[in-house]
Design goal:
Helix content: 25-40%
Radius of gyration: 25 Å
Largest sheet: 10 strands, mixed
Structural class: alpha/beta
Strand content: 15-25%
Distance between the termini: 55 Å
Length: 506
């Protein structure tokens, strides 16, 4: 299947031939659907903190975190082009003379143009406010869209979301990149005033991020009396997956070389694995709000982190107790802890194991990375949800399951999906260290069978692409997991440009 030239190309990418061959097999066999037992709901796999409990967890985090390294990890490589899909479509119609008067979203965009945080920047790119106002008055929509989307002006159609002006303040507009600095200063600052943040970016945008950082960092450092430690990384080329044609043969470029494609956000488990921090907050780049409503976000970030650390202490104690004795009493306590608090149910064969083998099994389940996942009530937004699912070893545990992982031809499974009351807004806090200070190798706790196959095209030819297990589902499938309800106010993603007109972004 692979020529000598192919093998050289694979090696030069940093990939391994057996891994690429397994990817081909995945295309041939497909990935299994998730085996979901039931939806995780409040009181049954999903924790709802009372006001008192939330306050206690905040206090616990503020006390314990003083001696820990805390870091904020932000996937920020996503392009903003999808935000402007309707604008690109309308621009094409204007260019071809097939456009009607703006309706719906397009009407709202032009009618509310001054309300966008990038309005002033747009005016400057066009040569001044008078020029922009004239274009609005004369309904020169094509000119406006050219200056919003292309390199004539803001070039927003080609930039990542992190570099767009999202919110207006008296001192000027802020990008999501800057909003994450502000968030970090409010719940990731250590006793020495250091605020570590890490952004995963695309290589073509690194210069723009660094340029923005250099321009604004002194101001934010002075404002928050903080020293920001900003790191950037890129998705590793070795994590790209091979593409195939519709007959599952390697897809080849015009020059005969193999086509490899980025394998989705699941590839970022490699970047996360390189991070050294006791507590890692993970949040998407576009889920930010203006300062006036950030308070609840800060509170729940600290509350979830406090809960994470309190459970970590419990796990460490159980590991210590179980490691020095095989007393049936301790075994029973750990069984109850795993089942009632970590929601890990053993396989049927567990009951027949000897006491020593039970201890080995229990220690194996305790000795895993720990995460807390915030979950919001489902109000129709797309995204994975919290479920109880059966794993390959027969255990049942809490998993974030995407809709694509459900077998749509299985009525029982689809019924469970519809029973879900919450979904995952990508609000995670991770603890990647063991009690002895050694870091877990996160790559050992993934579920390789939780990948995805997508249908794409290149140069007009159809192809199949393969995504690695998602960062917060398959890539963390073998972590210990806690699901916690968080207020809907903490979830404010920007999927389309008009989302910036919502009250929570004004």
């Amino acid at each position: 299947m692979f020529t000598q030239e192919d093998k050289i190309q694979i090696e030069q990418r940093g990939s391994a031939l057996p891994v690429v061959e397994q990817q081909i097999k995945n295309f041939e066999t497909g990935f299994p659907f998730a085996n979901v037992v039931k939806a995780a709901t409040v009181g049954d796999g999903l924790i709802r903190l009372s006001e008192k409990e939330a306050d206690e967890m905040v206090a616990h985090y503020e006390m314990v975190s003083k001696v820990l390294k805390v870091l904020k990890f932000v996937p920020a490589s996503g392009a903003a082009s999808r935000m402007f899909k309707s604008l690109f479509s309308y621009k094409t119609k204007l260019e071809t003379g097939t456009a009607e008067a703006p309706k719906g979203d397009m009407h709202d965009f032009f009618d509310c143009l001054p309300e966008f945080a990038f309005y002033q920047d747009l005016a400057e790119s066009m040569g001044g406010m008078a020029v922009l106002e004239k274009a609005e008055e004369e309904k020169d929509y094509l000119k406006i869209l050219d200056y919003v989307l292309t390199e004539k002006g803001l070039n927003y159609g080609q930039l990542p979301k992190g570099l767009l002006a999202f919110h207006k303040y008296e001192e000027g507009a802020r990008t999501p990149f800057e909003e994450h600095l502000v968030e970090g200063a409010n719940y990731c600052k250590d006793g020495d005033g250091k605020v570590p943040l890490h952004f995963t970016i695309s290589p073509e945008h690194r210069h723009a991020f660094v340029k923005l950082l250099n321009r604004i960092i002194e101001g934010y450092a002075a404002q928050f009396q903080a020293t920001f430690e900003i790191g950037f990384s890129e998705q590793k080329p070795a994590t790209d997956t091979i593409a195939v044609d519709m007959k599952n043969q390697p897809f080849r470029e015009a020059d005969g070389s193999l086509l490899f494609r980025p394998a989705g956000h699941g590839a970022l488990i490699e970047n996360l694995n390189d991070i050294e921090a006791d507590v890692i907050f993970i949040k998407n780049i576009d889920n930010v709000v203006p300062d006036r409503i950030k308070g609840e976000t800060y509170r729940y970030k600290k509350a979830l982190a406090g809960l994470l650390l309190s459970y970590q202490q419990k796990i460490f104690q159980h590991i210590k107790d179980l490691s020095k004795t095989d007393d049936a009493k301790w075994v029973k306590e750990v069984e109850q802890f795993l089942e009632k608090e970590l929601c890990v149910l053993p396989p049927a064969a567990y009951a027949q194991l000897s006491l020593l083998k039970k201890v080995s099994y229990l220690l194996g389940k305790l000795l895993r990375p720990l995460r807390v996942c915030g979950m919001v009530k489902n109000e129709g937004e797309p995204g994975g949800g919290p479920f109880w699912a059966t794993n390959s070893d027969g255990t049942v545990s809490l998993q974030v399951i995407e809709s694509a992982q459900f077998d749509e031809n299985n009525p029982a499974q689809m019924g469970i999906m519809k029973d879900s009351t919450h979904f995952n807004p990508v609000d995670l806090i991770c603890a990647p260290y063991k009690q002895d200070g050694e870091k877990y190798n996160l790559l050992e706790y993934t579920d390789p069978q939780a990948g995805f196959i997508a249908y794409k095209s290149s140069d007009g030819r159809d192809l199949k692409a393969q995504e690695l297990p998602g960062l917060w589902n398959g890539a963390m499938a073998n972590w210990n997991t806690l699901f916690v309800e968080v207020p809907i106010i903490t979830f404010n993603p920007v999927k389309t440009v008009n989302d910036l007109l919502r009250a929570n972004h004004q």
